[in-house]
Amino acid sequence: MDLKSEIIPEKLPKHIAIIMDGNGRWAKQHGKPRVFGHRNGVKAVRETTEAAAELGVSYLTLYAFSTENWKRPKLEVGALMRLLVETLHKEINTLNKNNIKLQAIGDISLLPKETHSALLKGIENTKNNTRMTLILALNYSGKWDIAQATKQLAKQVQEGVISPEDIDEERLAQSLSTSKIPDPELLIRTSGERRISNFLLWQLAYSELYFSPVFWPDFRKDQFYQAIIDYQNRERRFGKISEQLV
Ligand code: IPE
Ligand code: IPE
Ligand code: MG
Predict the structure, then answer these.
(1) Cα(171) to centroid(ligand 3), Å
(2) Domains (ranges, CATH) in the chain?
């Protein structure tokens, strides 16, 4: 059965966010060091990005490195940062060929210099692409995002640009790193873990959550399609009751 053909184009999520998890356990299963798992996760990134663009998804956000991930062994953090540089260099042409724009959320200024500049270069070189936006969450956490938004608003109050009464949900959302991006309708987490791990806390308020048992390096187009089909079979009520939905 062709899963892709089961997807209803009219009900396609505009924005899908993914917590790419399970690289380390995948490597362990193969009797290899954790970094081997991260390297093999790149293929899943490529496949998922391609699948999303082919379907017509507008935004795909991938959680690649959390603020908490700095606590990992130095060797692993270093390897991840180098893998990012390598992957960015390799994939920018493909992104351009596929008309995909690269963006990042998170405190990226704190990334190692090489990673930071490879990222900025990738963003600059793909900025005119229009088919889909691929957003990498790097040194990102939901709490960081809300805190930095609050800081911006506090400054605006201090400078007299706005008054405290002007602060509402809309304004706060506009100060988040995702201000120009609609909230994700669907969040996918791989590897069987069922938690948010400080990802897009504000933005996931009404997202549908889908947990796949598959480790990230084994995630392929079919698993992605499966998540979308599952999402399309849900009833999103947003506080209303079934009978009120058209
Ligand atoms: C996700 O896989 C990748 C990153 C967090 C960078 P993990 O490295 O968390 O893999 P597990 O969860 O240990 O298996
Ligand atoms: C979340 O995965 C972060 C990324 C996928 C980048 P982790 O593997 O770090 O999450 P926890 O710590 O197990 O919840
Ligand atoms: Mg993990």
Answers:
(1) 33
(2) 11-141+183-233 (3.40.1180.10)
Counting atoms of ligand 1 from 1, which one is nearest the CA of 25? 14
61 Cβ below 6 A of ligand 2: no
Alpha helix segments (H runs only) across the chain:
23-29, 34-55, 74-97, 113-125, 142-158, 169-175, 221-232
The 10s digit of each residue's pLDDT in 159-195 is: 999 999 999 999 999 999 999 999 999 999 999 999 9
Cα 22 to middle of ligand 1, angstroms: 5
Rounded CA-CA distance 111/113 in Å is 6
Asked whether the whole model's pTM tops 0.90, one would answer yes
Stated length of the chain: 246
